[in-house]
Amino acid sequence: SALTQPASVSGSPGQSITISCTGTSSDVGGYDYVSWYQQHPGKAPKLMIYDVSNRPSGVSNRFSGSKSGNTASLTISGLQAEDAADYYCSSYTSSSTLVFGGGTKLTVL
Amino acid sequence: QVQVGQSGAEVKKPGASVKVSCKVSGYTLIELSIHWVRQAPGQGLEWMGGFDPEDGETIYAQKFQGRVTVTEDTSTDTAYMELSSLRYEDTAVYYCATGPPTGNVRWIDPWGQGTLVIVSS
Asked: Distance (Å, rounded) from C-alpha A26 to C-alpha A49?
């Protein structure tokens, strides 16, 4: 079943926010294969973090990822207006499939 | 740089099938793994299936097994996703995305622009 994310988070420009992603030992807790995606309205998702904490080339270092047990987290520091988007976590599973979280809407106040 | 382009929007009747294409450029299909993800209106992302390089076979989400078929034409670097027995709740944007060519499916990127499939009588 889908990973669990908060429906929404918010923060003011310059602040930091953290989005959690909770799974089980069969997905998040069992592998260091958690990825995070950013999706702006009407656009395709974009990879922001892979393998728990790695940033693809071109992604701002304001984005960071971590994991503890069955919960992964995405932290965005120095919030900017353009960070407002939906964020999805994903994990590889013991069934060789991918599972996504339900998504979190980030509002920059 | 991998680029992914998808076929255009489709309108289908309940019970019909739809086949969405996904052409990659910059790399060949052999150098990538292809995955399909859908997003119903106002909803989240849902992985449907894709090639698992570690196992060397296409894996499908249990929810779609028996209804979805992913194929590839390596001569044109085009992948296809066919969904049969369409229902109203299959109305969604269908994305193809590329994954690593080896090992487990750890991430998928870049993504195509998406193909809107509307199921309507």
From this structure: 20
CA distance A63 to A55: 8
C-beta atoms of A92 and B104 within 8 A:
yes
Residue B85 has pLDDT above 90, yes or no: yes
How far apart, in whole angstroms, are the C-alpha atoms of residue A55 and residue A34? Answer: 12
CA angle A67, A48, B76 (to 5 degrees): 125
Q: Indicate the residue of A47, A56, A92 with minimum beta-carbon distance to B105.
A: A92
Round the average pLDDT of chain B to a whole number and report it. 95
**3-class SS of residue B30:** helix
Nearest to B47 by CA among A50, A95, A83, A7: A95
Percent of chain A with pLDDT over 90: 99
A97 close to B (CB below 8 A): yes
Nearest alpha carbon to residue A43 among B87, B111, B103 = B111
Nearest to A58 by CA among B104, B109, B3, B29: B109
Q: Are A86 and A101 in contact (CB under 8 A)?
A: no
Strands (E), B9-121: 10-12, 18-25, 33-39, 45-52, 57-60, 68-73, 78-83, 92-99, 115-119
Q: Cβ of A98 and B47 within 8 Å?
A: yes
Q: What mean pLDDT is reported for chain A?
A: 97
The answer to whether the CB of B6 falls within 8 A of the CB of B115 is: yes
Nearest CB among A35, A56, A96 relative to B59 is that of: A96
